[in-house]
Structure formats: C-alpha cells, structure tokens
Amino acid sequence: MISYNWIIYPIIGYLMGSIPTAVWVGRKRYGVDVREHGSKNAGATNTFRVLGKKPGVVVLTIDVFKGLIATIIPIVFVPDRLGSDILVNIQLLTCMACVLGHVFPIFANFDGGKGVATSLGVIIGLHPPAALIALSLFLLFYLLFSYVSLGAIVAAISFPLLLIFSFHVGSINLLIFASVLSLAVILAHRKNIVRLINGTESKMPMFKKTKKNN
Q1: pLDDT number for residue 147
Q2: Nearest to 101 by CA among 117, 87, 89
Q3: Which distant-in-sequence residues (6+ apart) come within 8 Å of 58 by Cβ?
Q4: What sections of 40-171 are H helices per DSSP?
Q5: pLDDT digit string (tens) for 82-91?
Q6: Quick one: pLDDT at residue 80?
Q7: Which of 56, 119, 166, 186 has the fewest other C-beta atoms within 10 Å?
Q8: Helix 5-17 crosses helix 53-77 at what angle (to 10 degrees)?
Q9: With helix as H, strand as E and coil as C, how does 4-23 read?
C-alpha cells in the first residue's frame, strides 16, 4: 500500500510553488501583469526589469523561500523517517513538484516563471555548501557579463557537477534529481541560449537603476 506521504507532500509542494509571486505583486501593488512586459516571464528577473528593485527583491525572496520550505516540510512532518532513503525520496518529489508549480502555476493559468529562484531555494535546502558555490558562480558570471540568464545556466550546470566531483555525494536519487533540475533550468533558458549565441540577449547590469512603475 502506498503511503499518503508520497502523495500529500508533493501536492503541498506543487501548490506552494504555484503561488505566482511576480504576478500577484505586480497586479496588487502596481496594477501591472509582468507577463505582458519585458521578457513576459513571471519571475524575479523580469520583475526587476519591469517594476524595479524593491518588488524584485520581494519576489526573489519569496520564490527562493518556496523552494527552501519544500525541502523542510517532509522533514518536519515525517520525523520518524529522518535520515531514511524514503524520507529523502519524498523530499525530492516535494521539491520537484514545487519547481513544477512555479513553472506551471495552477493559480496563474499555468503560465509561470523559469523556476530559477525556486530551484535556488531547493538546492540551498538540499546541499547548502554546493548551493553556495553555485550561487557564487552565478554572481561571478552575472557581474562579469551582466546576463542573468548566463549566470543561471552556469549555476545550474555546476550544481550536479559539484555534488559529484567536489562533495562526492553518494545518493543516486539526489544526483539524478540534481541533474534533472539542472536540465530543466537549461531547457527553460533555451531561447536565452539562442540569443546569447546570436549576441541579442538583453543585459541587466546589477548596479544600474531600474525604471520604477507607480
């Protein structure tokens, strides 16, 4: 018999990931649907681009915490299996459901973001040291080239490689999850990759003042 844990926590993860932070912040506070402006993406980067730094930070923070909380919920509510492979697998399913919820949110007609910020929260919860290095690589490439997409792609590629070669993680399921998550982020940026190759990708310098909508 399949335990309800395999069903209920991924559902919770999906619903939590489906909270369309960028859409709700844009509509409630600014009367703007970010999906109709800029890159037309319901994520933190486009929120920075369309609405400015303050709402961008709010959206980024909430989206990261969605992923982080998804890693914590199974641990808190299934403590009797702490440290077991079963709990790890439930945790990974919950995290994947959370990222899928962000990309395909039920509360926003399944039109969400690319899942980068939520994925960041997930990897922070699953393996903080590797996540810190991946985040550092993101910031390095972003600061050097001013392409958020390039930083995100580099960080996504680096995470499973760090788990394998730097931290020698032995959990096959975690490595598979990390690889799938990395591939999902890369595929979400496939149009950005084409623009990067063609030299038409939009830059977003970190220290440039962004236009603020009132």
Answers
A1: 96
A2: 117
A3: 21, 25
A4: 44-51, 53-77, 85-103, 116-126, 128-145, 148-161
A5: 668 888 999 9
A6: 67
A7: 166
A8: 170
A9: CHHHHHHHHHHHHHCCCHHH
- 112: nearest Cα among 42, 170, 45, 38: 42
Site of tokens 């623009």: 195
Q: What percent of the chain has pLDDT above 90?
A: 85
Q: Is the pLDDT of residue 4 over 90?
A: no
In this structure, what are the phi and psi dihedrals at residue 85, rounded to the nearest 5 degrees? -65, -35
75 φψ region: left (φ > 0), alpha (ψ -120 to 50), beta (else): alpha
Which residue type is seen at 42?
Answer: A
Residue with tokens 């690319």: 114
**DSSP-derived secondary structure for 51-79:** H-HHHHHHHHHHHHHHHHHHHHHHHHH-G
Q: How far apart are CA 23 and CA 112, in angstroms?
A: 9
Q: Which amino acid is at 157?
A: I
Q: How far apart are CA 61 and CA 109, in angstroms?
A: 22
8-state DSSP, 83 = T
Per-residue confidence (pLDDT) for residue 206, from 0 to 100: 76
Q: Using pLDDT thresholds of 50, 70 and 90, give the confidence band for residue 212.
A: very low
pLDDT digits (tens, 9 = 90+) for 109-124: 999 999 999 999 999 9
